């Protein structure tokens, strides 16, 4: 219960793990990839809801929680826990008095540290911070030959390598693509292994079955040590709600494993608006709020103080084809609104990314991704899954788009620094010095020379040369330039050093697990 | 001076032009193009500067105006006007006491109507409104064959036709591409003529020489009538400042013509940051503020109450190549900051657009354009030039990008509507009705059926179909789909009806002007 008492002050402070242990972890983590630290935002958030709108939506969510309730499906333990907590039980349906869930949510930390095996790559989740993580979940890949096919473990490893190389990618992610060449019941082992060995950035765990979540925690204990894992967050995992208003036994099972292990869960209603929620933004927010409150409250029943991230994943829909649409205004409005509620509840918030429905890394992909990514930053998202590589509504991991998106993440990171008005930022003497144009200009000014290396964001993808120069260099499009960078990142990858004993223990754990059961492919 | 007294209340009210004249204008304006009205924003603005930063920047701008001053070059009349107004004169250099320019700026209207010949297409410039206008100024074009070449008057007319067809394009613009097949000293006549005859949306005038500005006003008087033009804004024109800190005789000449005719000028420092201004955002804003204040104050010396738009066009720079870069964080920060000052001064604000340095309508183009366009909307820009069609740092007008950008403008227009929390928006009964998933869903709900036509932005460019369907339809990229739409818009263009007497008078004016002087090609 010390955990619970400490919860609201955040878990970050404890995570320091001073002295010998930290030094040892640093020693066995030799990663050389240049990285920007997680974003510490110095800019405002954009708010789309006024006070009245927030009151209406929260009141309606309370009404839904009290009248309709949430179904906790196929999980008698969850029902017992809710009964003990004083909720109203009707079979698998759980109803909540006004404010009950919000009261339970209060033990969740407002901010916490997710530790990486290289402490320099730890991330702070919550508050004014933003952490970018790669695309999650696609079965297909468009790798460097541009062919669309099912993903493999080799693709998976290559994406982990790219995420390791990208400076503005703060996290190694989870299922960066489904490795379909490995049995469904065993692939989580290889995925977690890849994150642990090819990268030293923080990673996500398996949620496809409770025992796979257990495996993730066990492997994390090999990597970090039992005590460290029990006292610190080292895994963040994605728990999707079956909207509308259902939690199933798979998600509840994994949620229980992680929360009880003190590990972080992103609890996200996954909503195709108009299909899984009302067709309006306010209606969708109402449902998101009801679902998220019930699920987050449940995480605190599992272990008060367990770190949790309030998530929202919403799309609009093409009413002709029924297909989800991305980068459109309404999902951005849902994001902005849900972020306001997360801030109100002092909870870290997950949403956004570089989302698109396009089949190609073309202009559609970029417009839609940029729209979502702008909302991600300005909305104050704390943890952004799918920040790079997402294509075709999440069906495809694109290597070229991964690299292009990472360039945009670096741009957003610069944007988040805000405007400096210190003496150097004011540049008053430079204006006095250069005086009048147009003959005089700033290129040669001392102030310009002193600042030019960091003053402007420098894209690694955009070509701003003259047309003639661009022609000489082969008239390449942005994805072609990205392709070359992706190749370089993968070819030049150097795995960060890892203690041999840990490596052997991980290999042994995986071999034992794989030998303990036959392959399953569904 | 009645003009001046009325200034701060806005000129919109007077623009109604009730009774016979309006009816006659409506009658002779038969345009059938479906159009969204200018945007009336219902969402907040995003602010990047806090109160302290604004104070520092304004104080520094005052210091620059007082110490360094602004050069009014090759225009003795301007110097005399400043002398009479009490500024400190030193040759062509004009210095201003603290607050002097801001005091003069106060007669400029905070909002005004720019009239179109079809009153349904009038736009309100200022306040909570946003008006989108096409790309301005490129010498080159990428038309529908994709070849990059110098623009012609045919290209010009085709872009005017596209702007007329695009529902979220509120304005016909100005130099949508340079028609290089027409003499430099005569092309303005054909450009203004194209806007007046192929469209009935509002348009911009020539600024390349004072006499061409006079021609624009004269042609506008033929179209609208002398009295109407004298009492209402029917032209908005772009006056660029020669940063740093210089106004030249060309821009001053056109500014005087338009301001004295009661027509609107956008007064924009055009800044490649690090070259024409300090390399920092705060330094650039300081210079923008000094330049804009002096130029706007000058417009009010020409005619107190003349409508004017405070403009800012800023880019960052590639410090390797020296080329300007677009869609990067720093220009967005300049935009957000300058918008805050325009609001503080109760002036309409121009900035943003769909800017990019890309040579192709590819992912680079779309990322960069979307970044700028998101800032345009959230920053509260009132008049956005270059909202569609801009490519290659403004050297190229791209037909395909024009169509793709217009789709994004429509998305922003939807975004600007904000979140409705009326009973329909709340959708509480729908949530009650659908209840629990995942079997139950919202697609068939009555509330969804009642709302689906308008609930979600429907892109005309994005393909959200299944991969298989997309393949069947030819595996097209976004620019390929845009190409087909552009062809349709141009082919199906039907010029809005125009009174035959007016058409003849315009033709006669142009013929007379063209015959009065030899062709000049520089």
From TrEMBL, chains A, B:
Q: What class of enzyme is it?
A: transferase
UniProt superkingdom: Bacteria
Signal peptide annotation: none
* UniProt-listed Enzyme Commission number(s): 2.1.1.-
Output one GO BP term.
methylation
Region Disordered, as annotated, extends over 1-28
Key word Methyltransferase present in the record? yes
UniProt keywords (A-Z) are: Methyltransferase, Transferase
* GO MF: methyltransferase activity
Family annotation (Pfam families):
MTTB (PF06253)
- Which Gene3D superfamilies does the UniProt entry name for this protein? Trimethylamine methyltransferase-like
* Entry similarity comment: Belongs to the trimethylamine methyltransferase family.
Q: What is this protein called?
A: Methyltransferase
């Amino acid at each position: 219960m010390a955990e619970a008492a400490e919860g609201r002050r955040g878990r970050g402070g404890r995570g320091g793990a001073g002295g010998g242990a930290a030094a040892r972890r640093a020693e066995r983590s030799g990663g050389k990839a240049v990285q920007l630290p997680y974003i510490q935002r110095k800019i405002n958030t954009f708010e789309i809801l006024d006070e009245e709108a927030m009151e209406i939506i929260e009141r309606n969510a309370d009404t839904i929680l009290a009248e309709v309730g949430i179904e906790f499906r196929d999980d008698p333990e969850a029902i017992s826990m809710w009964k003990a907590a004083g909720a109203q039980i009707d079979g698998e349906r759980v109803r909540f008095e006004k404010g009950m869930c919000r009261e339970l949510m209060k033990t969740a930390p407002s901010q916490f540290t997710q530790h990486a095996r290289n402490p320099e790559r730890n991330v702070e989740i919550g508050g004014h911070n933003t952490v970018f993580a790669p695309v999650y979940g696609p079965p297909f890949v468009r790798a460097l030959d541009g062919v669309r096919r099912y993903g493999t473990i080799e693709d998976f490893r290559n994406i982990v390598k790219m995420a390791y190389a990208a400076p503005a990618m703060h996290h190694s992610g989870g299922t960066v693509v489904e490795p379909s060449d490995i049995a469904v019941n065993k692939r989580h082992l290889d995925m977690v292994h890849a994150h642990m060995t090819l990268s030293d950035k923080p990673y996500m765990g398996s949620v496809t079955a409770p025992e796979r979540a257990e495996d993730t925690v066990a492997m994390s204990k090999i990597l970090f040590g039992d005590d460290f894992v029990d006292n610190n967050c080292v895994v963040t995992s994605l728990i999707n709600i079956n909207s509308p208003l259902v939690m199933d036994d798979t998600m509840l099972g994994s949620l229980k494993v992680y929360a009880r292990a003190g590990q972080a869960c992103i609890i996200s209603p996954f909503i195709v608006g108009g299909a899984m929620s009302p067709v309006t933004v306010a209606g969708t927010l109402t449902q998101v709020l009801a679902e998220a409150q019930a699920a987050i409250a449940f995480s605190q029943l599992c272990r008060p103080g367990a770190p949790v991230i309030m998530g929202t994943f919403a799309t609009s829909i093409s009413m002709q084809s029924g297909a989800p649409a991305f980068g459109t205004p309404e999902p951005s409005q849902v994001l902005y609104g849900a972020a306001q509620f997360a801030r109100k509840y002092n909870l870290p918030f997950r949403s956004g990314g570089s989302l698109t429905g396009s089949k190609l890394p073309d202009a559609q992909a970029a417009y839609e991704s940029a729209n979502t990514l702008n909302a991600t930053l300005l909305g104050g998202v704390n943890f952004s899954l799918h920040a790079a590589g997402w294509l075709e509504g999440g069906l495809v991991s694109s290597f070229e788009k991964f690299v292009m998106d990472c360039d945009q993440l670096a741009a957003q990171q610069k944007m988040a620094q805000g405007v400096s008005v210190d003496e150097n930022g004011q540049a008053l003497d430079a204006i006095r010095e250069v005086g009048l144009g147009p003959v005089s200009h700033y290129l040669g000014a001392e102030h310009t020379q002193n600042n030019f290396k960091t003053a402007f964001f420098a894209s690694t993808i955009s070509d701003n040369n003259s047309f003639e120069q661009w022609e000489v260099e082969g008239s390449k499009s942005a994805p072609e330039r990205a392709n070359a960078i992706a190749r370089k990142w993968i070819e030049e990858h150097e795995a960060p050093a890892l203690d041999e004993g840990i490596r052997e223990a991980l290999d042994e754990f995986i071999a034992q697990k794989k030998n303990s059961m036959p392959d399953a492919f569904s």
